[in-house]
Design brief:
The chain is an alpha/beta fold. The protein has 16 helices and ten strands. It is 40% helix and 10% strand. The protein starts with a helix and ends in a 17-residue tail after the last helix.
């Protein structure tokens, strides 16, 4: 067989990225380095040039935390989750799409908004509580909807719901969840929101919405940014390195409707899981079915924010799906100000994508968000230690957020002002 130097170089490049990443800097990665004769200094250059410079998780196996309480920041959970979660499952969670420009921008864009602290203010007592649609919460930090949580821990979304209950956080179940809405509501023993993937069929969406409303869900988030195909390159590459046979578990194909219990009992023949046919009149169709509040998730422009108000939505969720839907290149935090310019004070604004620190939460609040959702970090906690891992991730973020409020001179949420963020960077 003719030797293919290009493919060898491509493989070495990928392994360099793989081993440089704090996701994979474990014993197996050290073996890969030795086999491929890769200079660790090259990896450090790759790391510093291409990854978040604030990511300070352990780089060698004996530094990995062995319990949630050992964690110093949320990044400490990521390499532990990588070690414990099946590779293809971890890759599905970690991936962006295409060049992953948006995935990286979601982190790096936070650095464009330095903070402007105010001094000589009494912050000896800090109140982080908020009210959303009449319900009071101890923190604006929410648990975002993410799919297939049983891929990271056997209890999946039920473990997440219990963690939300233990910490007093609001959580949102995804239609792509691996647990039923009934199980999650029972585990949470309190308010749970639901995030709808409408599919290509309005009738399917109606059946799902009716089921969700029957169990007492007060808020329906409609995901509007999954309307086309996506090239999940990191997932596809790492999936090839997973030695397991996927069909042993994913009988119908990974991510199919058959893997999502919310569609149980619904005829999904010929149904496309994306919602590329969705238009603004879909909101009225849902209004005709439910009395739940309706929030649109995936809004990134002032034009669409204006249309949200025109069509009477109850809330706007600024999100680029964590860089998993399109690779347009803007970090979600860069999109928040233009949405807030239109919608702030008229409807609640939620935010997610790239949040890793309590200071990130503060910046989002200062730029117009009423609440901030956490995605991948709690999945790291779930994959690393199950429910206790999720609890600790949320605890760390809440502690950091409260500390940031004190450092910024904000004793309560109302005191977080847009002037506390420098927008000229």
């Amino acid at each position: 067989m003719k030797h293919n130097k290009y493919k060898d170089d491509q493989r070495r490049q990928f392994l360099s990225w793989l081993a440089a990443s704090p996701l994979l800097a474990l014993g197996s990665s050290q073996d890969l380095l030795a086999q491929e004769k890769i200079d660790p200094r090259e990896l450090l250059r790759n790391y510093s040039e291409h990854l978040d410079p604030m990511m300070l998780s352990p780089k060698i196996p004996f530094e990995l935390i062995s319990s949630p309480q050992e964690a110093i920041n949320v990044f400490d959970f990521e390499p532990v989750a990588f070690k414990r979660v099946p590779l293809a499952h971890f890759a599905y969670m970690a991936t962006g799409i295409d060049d992953e420009v948006t995935l990286r921008a979601n982190r790096s864009a936070f650095q464009k908004f330095p903070l402007r602290p105010r001094r000589m203010r009494d912050v000896s007592h800090v109140d982080t509580s908020i009210t959303l649609f009449g319900s009071k919460w101890k923190s604006p930090i929410m648990i975002a909807p993410t799919g297939g949580n049983k891929a990271y821990d056997p209890e999946g979304e039920v473990a997440v719901a219990r963690a939300a209950r233990a910490g007093g956080y609001l959580n949102v179940l995804s239609a792509a969840g691996a647990s039923t809405i009934e199980e999650v509501v029972a585990a949470r023993q309190g308010e749970v929101w639901f995030s709808l993937y409408a599919t290509s069929s309005t009738e399917v969406a109606k059946q799902v919405v009716r089921r969700v409303e029957r169990v007492g869900v007060p808020v329906l988030e409609i995901t509007v940014d999954r309307n086309g195909g996506r090239n999940q390159e990191t997932f596809f590459r790492l999936k090839k390195m997973d030695s397991r046979t996927c069909s042993n578990c994913h009988v119908h194909g990974f991510g199919s409707a058959h893997e999502r219990p919310i569609y149980d009992g619904i005829d999904m023949t010929g149904i496309n899981m994306s919602s590329s046919n969705m238009t603004w009149d879909f909101i009225q169709k849902m209004r005709d079915v439910t009395k739940m509040k309706i929030v649109l998730k995936g809004i990134l422009t002032e034009e669409d924010a204006s249309l949200c108000l025109k069509y009477g939505v109850d809330g706007i969720h600024v999100s680029n799906h964590g860089g998993r839907s399109e690779d347009g290149g803007r970090g979600a935090i860069e999109c928040l100000p233009e949405v807030a310019k239109v919608a702030k004070g008229k409807v609640p604004i939620l935010f997610d994508s790239g949040v890793r620190r309590g200071s990130d939460v503060f910046k989002a609040m200062a730029l117009g968000a009423n609440a901030v959702c956490i995605g991948r970090p709690y999945l790291w906690g779930l994959g690393a230690f199950g429910q206790p891992g999720v609890e600790r991730v949320m605890e760390i973020l809440q502690t950091e957020f409260k500390s940031t409020m004190q450092q910024m001179g904000a004793p309560n949420i109302a005191a977080i002002q847009s002037s506390m963020v420098f927008k000229g960077a």
